[in-house]
Design goal:
Layout (H helix, E strand, L loop, with lengths): L2 E6 L3 E7 L5 E8 L6 H9 L7 E6 L10 E2 L2 H8 L9 H14 L5 E5 L9 H4 L5 H7 L8 H15 L7 E7 L3 E7 L2 E5 L20 H10 L4 H10 L2 H6 L5 H9 L3 H24 L5 E5 L1 H5 L1 H9 L10 H5 L5 E2 L8 E4 L4 H14 L11
Parallel strand pairs: 1-4, 4-6, 7-10, 10-12
Antiparallel strand pairs: 1-2, 2-3, 5-6, 7-8, 8-9, 11-12
Helix pairs in contact: 1-3, 6-15, 10-11, 11-13
Length: about 375
């Protein structure tokens, strides 16, 4: 089965046609600013590729009801549209792509694959907010977690590189890109993660703040006179590395500025590292130890500096990198010294392969589009 995978991320729209043996048959990456012409761009891409059998969409937030990959139907699409405010950088573009493909290829099955699915089985103590029980049950509040497609693939690939069964491993998978999150993956299952009800929580990101005291936000709204829309805009697009450094949302630019003596950029990188190290330690604590830390995503794969600096602050977990391996070509590989107790692994993010796998599983089993809790 040849599958077109559609990945609407926070900074790009990635299209891949995955063929036999998971070979990439065709590919296109559309920058974030091109999103206004998604219809035309997808049409142009389709005109250049050979036929495919199905479409798989990455959808960041499935909410409380969409908890497994589903064959698209009217009810599923209606539910997706209602979830836009939970992931405003991601879900609306994904829904737009769904509608474009439905119009351009109405006879093809479309499967929606959720980043939240991988974390849906987290233990209750990890998923539950200490809010009034009535709130949690009335509105389905919980820590959903995100980047699940990437975390799932990275854990399996790391186990292959380590030469050990995934079922025997405790891994911290670190998806570090424009958005960033960690997952504690024990025996192949997510048991904790850094993101929460929305993709705003957890680590410092390119333009997102990560964890912020909710009391601070209430204070800004009451005393600073900021509206909910103004707070949301700043938390989503004006915070993180960009807001703190005043230089760029690009980690590479921030590090270069810090090395050149820019104190604001240096502080931004220090805060970024502090939160990342603390998060890795917290994920390890959720599993009573760790056998490997897996770096994936744009910065996770490509910044040897980030991997080195992260591990330098976590030597108590047995983490270290071999400088030659760490600086070598960007292939999937172990970068920890031989004989270390905890492996450090670099894995290219391949959400496309995880999406294609889920599409084939759904269509191979003939699973209809059903919503959790409904028939």
């Amino acid at each position: 089965m040849r599958v077109l995978t559609v990945n609407a991320g926070s900074s790009s729209l990635k299209l891949r046609v995955i063929g036999l043996d998971d070979a990439v048959v065709a590919t296109a990456d559309l920058p974030h600013q091109a999103r206004g012409s998604v219809d035309g761009e997808i049409s142009q891409f389709l005109s250049k590729v050979s036929p495919f059998d199905a479409v798989g969409h990455r959808v960041v937030h499935g909410g409380p009801d969409l908890r497994a990959p589903l064959l698209l139907d009217a009810r599923v699409e209606e539910t997706l549209q209602a979830l836009g405010d939970l992931a405003p950088l991601h879900n609306p573009p994904a829904v737009e792509a769904v509608q474009v493909l439905r119009r351009l290829r109405p006879d093809l099955p479309q499967v929606v694959c959720f980043d939240t699915t991988f974390h849906a089985g987290m233990p209750a103590e990890a998923a539950t907010y200490a809010l009034p029980h009535e709130w949690n049950t009335r509105w389905g509040l919980r820590r959903f977690g995100f980047h699940g497609l990437s975390h799932a693939y990275a854990g399996g690939r790391a186990a292959q590189l380590m030469g050990r069964p995934l079922s025997d491993l405790r891994l911290v998978t670190a998806h570090i890109g424009s958005g960033a999150s960690l997952a504690a993956v024990a025996g192949g299952r997510s048991v904790d993660t850094t993101m929460g009800f929305t993709p705003l929580a957890g680590l410092v990101m390119a333009t997102r703040a990560g964890d912020v005291d909710p009391g601070l936000l209430l204070w800004l709204m009451r005393r600073g006179g900021l509206s909910a829309d103004e707070v949301e805009e700043s938390l989503e697009r004006g915070s993180g590395l960009l807001g703190l450094s005043g230089v760029s949302a690009d980690l590479r630019v921030v590090i270069d500025a810090a090395d050149a003596g820019n104190e604001q950029a240096a502080l931004a990188y220090a805060v970024y590292l502090h939160r990342l190290r603390a998060g890795v330690a917290a994920m390890a604590a959720a599993m009573d130890g760790v056998d490997g830390v897996v770096f994936t995503g744009g910065a996770g794969e490509n910044s040897a500096r980030l991997r080195r600096d992260t591990c330098r602050g976590l030597s108590f977990l047995g983490l270290a990198v071999d400088d030659d391996l760490n600086e070598s070509a960007p292939d999937d590989r172990l970068v920890s010294p031989a004989g270390t107790s905890t492996s450090v692994v670099v894995v290219a993010a391949r959400e496309d392969l995880e999406i294609a796998r889920q599409v084939r599983e759904v269509l191979g089993h003939g699973r209809a589009g059903t919503i959790h809790g409904r028939q």
